[in-house]
Write a structure and sequence with these properties.
Blueprint: H1 2-33, H2 35-38, H3 47-51, H4 60-63, H5 67-76, H6 90-98
Helix pairs in contact: 1-6, 5-6
Bound molecules: heme C (HEC).
Protein backbone atom coordinates (compact mmCIF):
# COMPACT_ATOMS: atom_id res chain seq x y z
CA UNK A 1 0.00 0.00 0.00
CA UNK A 2 2.67 2.47 1.08
CA UNK A 3 4.79 1.36 -1.89
CA UNK A 4 1.96 2.16 -4.31
CA UNK A 5 1.61 5.65 -2.90
CA UNK A 6 5.35 6.25 -3.23
CA UNK A 7 5.29 4.97 -6.81
CA UNK A 8 2.36 7.19 -7.73
CA UNK A 9 4.03 10.25 -6.18
CA UNK A 10 7.28 9.44 -8.01
CA UNK A 11 5.51 9.03 -11.36
CA UNK A 12 3.78 12.37 -10.93
CA UNK A 13 7.11 14.01 -10.10
CA UNK A 14 8.80 12.51 -13.17
CA UNK A 15 5.93 13.60 -15.44
CA UNK A 16 5.98 17.11 -13.97
CA UNK A 17 9.74 17.39 -14.47
CA UNK A 18 9.45 16.14 -18.07
CA UNK A 19 6.83 18.83 -18.69
CA UNK A 20 9.11 21.54 -17.34
CA UNK A 21 12.00 20.22 -19.45
CA UNK A 22 9.88 20.36 -22.60
CA UNK A 23 8.80 23.94 -21.90
CA UNK A 24 12.43 24.94 -21.35
CA UNK A 25 13.46 23.11 -24.54
CA UNK A 26 11.00 25.16 -26.57
CA UNK A 27 12.26 28.39 -25.00
CA UNK A 28 15.88 27.40 -25.71
CA UNK A 29 15.03 26.35 -29.28
CA UNK A 30 13.21 29.64 -29.80
CA UNK A 31 16.26 31.56 -28.58
CA UNK A 32 18.60 29.57 -30.82
CA UNK A 33 16.51 29.38 -34.01
CA UNK A 34 13.85 32.08 -34.01
CA UNK A 35 15.02 35.04 -31.93
CA UNK A 36 17.45 36.35 -34.59
CA UNK A 37 14.45 37.21 -36.75
CA UNK A 38 11.52 37.42 -34.35
CA UNK A 39 13.37 38.92 -31.35
CA UNK A 40 13.80 37.47 -27.85
CA UNK A 41 10.21 38.32 -26.91
CA UNK A 42 8.71 37.72 -30.36
CA UNK A 43 8.26 41.45 -30.93
CA UNK A 44 10.21 41.38 -34.21
CA UNK A 45 12.49 44.10 -32.88
CA UNK A 46 15.59 42.91 -34.76
CA UNK A 47 17.25 44.09 -37.97
CA UNK A 48 15.83 41.06 -39.77
CA UNK A 49 12.45 41.58 -38.15
CA UNK A 50 12.35 45.18 -39.37
CA UNK A 51 13.52 44.23 -42.87
CA UNK A 52 10.86 41.52 -43.12
CA UNK A 53 8.26 43.76 -41.41
CA UNK A 54 7.47 40.91 -39.03
CA UNK A 55 4.27 41.09 -37.03
CA UNK A 56 4.86 40.64 -33.27
CA UNK A 57 4.23 36.97 -32.43
CA UNK A 58 2.26 38.09 -29.37
CA UNK A 59 -0.06 40.33 -31.45
CA UNK A 60 -3.73 39.47 -31.89
CA UNK A 61 -3.14 39.00 -35.64
CA UNK A 62 -0.66 36.19 -35.05
CA UNK A 63 -2.33 34.72 -31.95
CA UNK A 64 -5.63 34.35 -33.82
CA UNK A 65 -3.97 31.74 -36.07
CA UNK A 66 -5.07 28.26 -34.98
CA UNK A 67 -2.64 25.67 -33.62
CA UNK A 68 -3.09 23.82 -36.94
CA UNK A 69 -2.17 26.92 -38.95
CA UNK A 70 0.89 27.60 -36.78
CA UNK A 71 1.92 23.93 -37.10
CA UNK A 72 1.72 24.09 -40.91
CA UNK A 73 3.61 27.39 -40.98
CA UNK A 74 6.41 26.01 -38.79
CA UNK A 75 6.57 22.73 -40.72
CA UNK A 76 6.56 24.25 -44.20
CA UNK A 77 7.89 27.77 -43.65
CA UNK A 78 6.51 30.76 -45.53
CA UNK A 79 8.29 33.31 -47.71
CA UNK A 80 11.63 34.04 -46.04
CA UNK A 81 10.64 31.98 -43.01
CA UNK A 82 12.54 28.65 -43.04
CA UNK A 83 10.74 25.28 -42.75
CA UNK A 84 11.35 23.44 -39.48
CA UNK A 85 9.68 20.08 -40.18
CA UNK A 86 11.69 17.33 -38.45
CA UNK A 87 14.14 19.88 -37.03
CA UNK A 88 12.37 21.05 -33.89
CA UNK A 89 9.52 19.97 -31.59
CA UNK A 90 6.76 21.76 -33.53
CA UNK A 91 3.96 21.12 -30.98
CA UNK A 92 6.20 22.43 -28.21
CA UNK A 93 6.99 25.52 -30.28
CA UNK A 94 3.30 26.22 -30.95
CA UNK A 95 2.78 26.13 -27.16
CA UNK A 96 5.74 28.45 -26.71
CA UNK A 97 4.27 30.93 -29.21
CA UNK A 98 1.10 30.98 -27.07
CA UNK A 99 3.19 32.11 -24.10
CA UNK A 100 4.43 35.18 -26.02
CA UNK A 101 1.07 36.98 -26.02
C1 LIG B 1 15.24 34.06 -41.31
C2 LIG B 1 14.31 34.73 -40.42
C3 LIG B 1 13.28 33.87 -39.67
C4 LIG B 1 13.53 32.87 -38.76
C5 LIG B 1 14.88 32.32 -38.33
C6 LIG B 1 12.24 32.46 -38.27
N1 LIG B 1 11.24 33.17 -38.89
FE1 LIG B 1 9.26 33.07 -38.45
N2 LIG B 1 8.88 34.37 -39.96
C7 LIG B 1 9.83 34.96 -40.77
C8 LIG B 1 9.16 35.71 -41.81
C9 LIG B 1 9.84 36.51 -42.91
C10 LIG B 1 7.76 35.56 -41.60
C11 LIG B 1 6.62 36.15 -42.41
C12 LIG B 1 6.26 35.17 -43.50
C13 LIG B 1 5.21 35.74 -44.41
O1 LIG B 1 4.12 36.09 -43.93
O2 LIG B 1 5.50 35.85 -45.60
C14 LIG B 1 7.64 34.71 -40.41
C15 LIG B 1 6.43 34.34 -39.87
C16 LIG B 1 6.29 33.62 -38.69
C17 LIG B 1 5.04 33.38 -38.03
C18 LIG B 1 3.68 33.87 -38.51
C19 LIG B 1 3.56 35.32 -38.15
C20 LIG B 1 2.62 36.07 -39.02
O3 LIG B 1 2.76 37.31 -39.04
O4 LIG B 1 1.76 35.47 -39.68
C21 LIG B 1 5.31 32.66 -36.91
C22 LIG B 1 4.32 32.17 -35.87
C23 LIG B 1 6.74 32.43 -36.90
N3 LIG B 1 7.30 33.03 -37.99
C24 LIG B 1 7.40 31.72 -35.94
C25 LIG B 1 8.75 31.38 -36.01
C26 LIG B 1 9.39 30.45 -35.12
C27 LIG B 1 8.72 29.75 -33.95
C28 LIG B 1 10.69 30.36 -35.54
C29 LIG B 1 11.78 29.45 -34.99
C30 LIG B 1 11.51 28.03 -34.99
C31 LIG B 1 10.86 31.25 -36.66
N4 LIG B 1 9.66 31.83 -36.93
C32 LIG B 1 12.05 31.48 -37.31
C33 LIG B 1 11.20 34.88 -40.61
C34 LIG B 1 11.85 34.03 -39.77
Amino acid sequence: MKKTVVLVVLSILVLALAGVARAEDAAATYKAKCAMCHGATGAGDTTMGKNFKLRPLGSADVQKLTDAELTTLLNKGKGKMPAYEGKIDIAGMVKHIRTLK
